Amino acid sequence: MSIKIYKPTTPSRRKMSIVSSSDLTKKKREKSLTQGLRKKSGRNNSGRLTVRHRGGGARQVYRKVDFKRLRFDEVATVQAIEYDPNRNARIALVKYNDNSKSYILAAVGMKVGDEIVSSQNKIEIKNGNRMPLELIPQGQIVYNVELESGRGGVMARSAGAGVILQNIEGEYVQLKMPSGEIRMVRKHCLASLGQVSNPKAKLIRIGKAGRKRHMGIKPTVRGKAMNPVDHPHGGGEGKHPIGLPGPKNVYGKKAMGIKTRKKRWSDKLIIKRRKHKK
Q1: For an engineered disulfide with 179, which of 107, 114, 149, 274 has Cβ 3.0 to 4.6 Å away?
Q2: In the chain, % of residues over pLDDT 90
Q3: Can you tell me the mean pLDDT for 246-257?
Q4: What is the mean pLDDT of the chain?
């Protein structure tokens, strides 16, 4: 898997890059494991905008990825490594002994023909295998980690993500997140061994605005370029500062340097907060 850089045949092509598809072994999706996906355009269930600058984009078909993997002690063979338009990681098509198939998140180094297992007992330390956190050696990198036993993995699911298992204390395991946050998770929760595939996804250069539109993201206009009625930064003559102690969003709330996390019951499980970018 490598980064492919286009030749500068046009201004928009200059320095544009994509992740090479040389690691993909199957082009067509497994129809039995897909379903239609309706565009939400940044709106919630009542139709109100909750995320701005979303809409349009290329049509996508959703792949039913199994984040739980509760078929314990059944050997699954990797049939193919596929592209998923709904995530930046690769997905693997696996087949069980009863000929049933499912999609799972592919790990770095996973290839066709590999046999992987999900178990509640201690099994081989191998990329793609899944077992409770208490049975995994300290210092091991894991992904697709559960927060509640049996509910399916919710942490470390994006391309290149991996969580470091630090130590076990009583009923909890300490995990170091990619952000630097250290938090406790119950030791009976399941996790997959290894790192999520396609780690070079973060190195991609989009290159042009049209490619962003294909991704369903619309242009963003600076607040300074608007009128006072449209944004707290708007108005004034020519180029000038915003005239405020700090930047605000379109709704008048502080945009930088303020914590937005509310008090939650899980605060007691967070030992060290994530590192904030300056």
Answers
A1: 274
A2: 83
A3: 91
A4: 92
Inform me whether the pLDDT recorded for 26 exceeds 90.
no
Count CB neighbours of 111 within 10 A.
12
- Please report whether residue 133 resides in a domain: yes
Using only C-alpha atoms, what is the Rg of the chain?
Answer: 22
Q: Report if residue 45 sits inside a domain.
A: no
CB 116 within 8 A of CB 126: yes
What is the DSSP track for 125-185? --TT-EEEGGGSPTT-EEESEESSTTS-EEES-STT--EEEEEEETTEEEEE-TTS-EEEE
Structure-block tokens of residue 157? 């699911």
Domain count, the chain: 1
The C-alpha atoms of residue 149 and residue 37 are separated, in whole angstroms, by 28
pTM for the whole thing? 0.88
DSSP-assigned states of every residue in 7-50: --SSTTTTT-EEE--TT----S--GGGEEE----TTB-TTS-BS
**Looking at the domain assignment, is residue 4 inside a domain?**
no
Would the CA dihedral through 222, 226, 230, 235 be positive or negative?
Answer: positive
Range of the structural domain that residue 65 is part of = 24-38+59-197
| pLDDT classification of 277: cutoffs 50, 70, 90 | low
Task: Give the pLDDT confidence of 64-81 residue by residue, as tens digits.
Answer: 999 999 999 999 999 999
Q: How far apart are CA 131 and CA 125, in angstroms?
A: 10
**Residue 143: which of 100, 169, 102, 110 has the closest Cα?**
110
249 φ/ψ sector (left φ>0, alpha ψ -120 to 50, else beta): beta
Task: Say what the pLDDT of residue 273 is.
Answer: 86
Tokens of 132: 């409770």
